[in-house]
Amino acid sequence: TVRQWISALVIPGIAFLASQGFGGRTFALVLIGFVVVAVLAAVWGFLRWRATTYGVSGGAFHLRQGVIQKTERTIPLEHVQSVDTVQGIIQRVFGVVEVRVETAGGGGDAPDASLPALGIEDAEALRREIQGSAGAGPRAVTETGEEVEGGPAVIRALSTRDLLVAGATSGQIGVALSVIAVGSQVFDDIFSNGFAERIIESLAPRSVTAALLLVLVVGLFAWLLAIAGTVLSYARFTLSRDGEFLYIRRGLLEKREATIPLARIQAVKVVEGVLRQPFGLAMVRVESAGYGQDAGVSTTLFPLLPREEAQDLLRRAAPEFAVEPPLEKLPRRAFRRYVFRAVLPVLFLIPTLAAVSILALDFIPGAFLALLLLAPAVFLGWLRYRDAGWALDGGRLVVRSRMLARTTAVAPRRRLQSRSVLRSPLQRRLDLATLRAQLASGGGGVAVEVVDLGSETASALLERLGPRTADPVTET
């Protein structure tokens, strides 16, 4: 509690010092304020600790919290998705972990129930009580990933080399650029306009070469930031299995342990990022069931491995999803629609770029440079058409598609919640249709679809996937 309250005051405190000057009196006032807040936070943390009780009884997990307003949460054990633990730096110092109880409808940023500081042995006892002896957790695996006798069997561990490659090919540069943009906004809010203007003037490029160099430096920094984020998140990544549970351990500064019940996995996706596909690398993700009207959870089963080894991983971790049959291709008349969908955003973008080029830059030839985007768009449409395909093997629907990354999804027929065929007016002209299958992951769950199948093929596949009474065909 002290850490949380003090962290919330750091930026306002720096802003106050910057606005009032870094004098001794101002610094003393800020320091006194921090001390007062720390004392109040410590008292409040003590009261929260005394007011928190938990237990498992009557087939449910009970958690009672609250100093002023008492709240009690009761979660039936059959609705528990997982009992995960997180151990940050401060928690590691005190030898405790945070226990997060997620229900089958979880997946939000906040857990359904949380105990922020529980002893490691108490956390394991709670996990066993909620999930049974099969859910004893991956504490029997050492820091180096070695299996301890009697513990979960280690399926695969991420090496340091693969960790760095995962960061370099993660495609998270856009996220890193967003972090840089937010950081620059915070910088602008803290310091005066005059100080910020002097910094910008000193760094502003004075030539095209300098501008390109600045863009290169910012891009390189964002790329390194993306690698660092991947390292912090996926360091020491270990996938283990014990009975009907999969366990994932990961994290460098903040150690996380997650539980995935095999019975709740609805689909598996093998994702080949645009930077990873040339090297034959992929990520494996699982879609887990939701409950009631809540959406399911999408979890990284393994962050990076050779694409050809994905099936071996699934055979050991989740054999029901280990299938890779030859895929049926789409009809040739669907090619034009794939290209059209890829080119359409560029057609809308060209007039905008032309207007900016002429009005803002007064550079008429620059308007025609936008046409250069058409060739990559056509190529992307061709790639999407070439990679699209489907198969039905042993009651399992396999669908491959591409946006930028190429994704192969495997969903057992018995996990499908609904199936439908959709035909737009343009599709009807070409005798095409879209098959969509919704996974049994609650309202708003994940759907897999095959776009621009032949109409007869889509209807036949709908019959094979659906119950004896076929789902309706939707005209759009």
Provide structural commentary.
The chain is α+β, with helices and mostly antiparallel strands and 476 residues long. Helices cover 42% and strands 28% of the residues. It is built from 14 helices and 20 strands. The chain has helices spanning 2-20, 24-51, 89-94, 120-131, 160-168, 173-190, 193-203, 208-234, 310-317, 335-360, 365-369, 374-387, 425-429, 455-465; strands at residues 53-57, 60-65, 71-76, 80-87, 96-103, 113-119, 153-157, 238-242, 245-250, 255-261, 265-272, 281-288, 297-306, 389-393, 396-402, 406-412, 416-423, 432-439, 447-454, 473-475. The strands form four sheets. It has a seven-stranded antiparallel β-sheet with strand order 6-5-4-10-9-8-7, sandwiched between helices. Helix 1 runs antiparallel to helix 2 (24-51), helix 5 packs across helix 8 and helix 6 (173-190) packs across helix 8. The longest helix has 28 residues, at 24-51.
The largest sheet has its strands arranged as 6-5-4-10-9-8-7
Q: Number of DSSP strands?
A: 20
Ends apart, CA distance between termini = 54 Å
Uncertain runs are 133-149, 290-296, 468-476
Biggest sheet details: 7 strands, antiparallel
Mean pLDDT: 80
Which shape, going by the Cα principal axes? globular
SS element count, helices: 14
Helix content: 40-55%
Q: Rg from C-alpha positions? A: 27 Å
**Proportion of strand residues:** 25-35%
Helix vs. strand class: alpha+beta
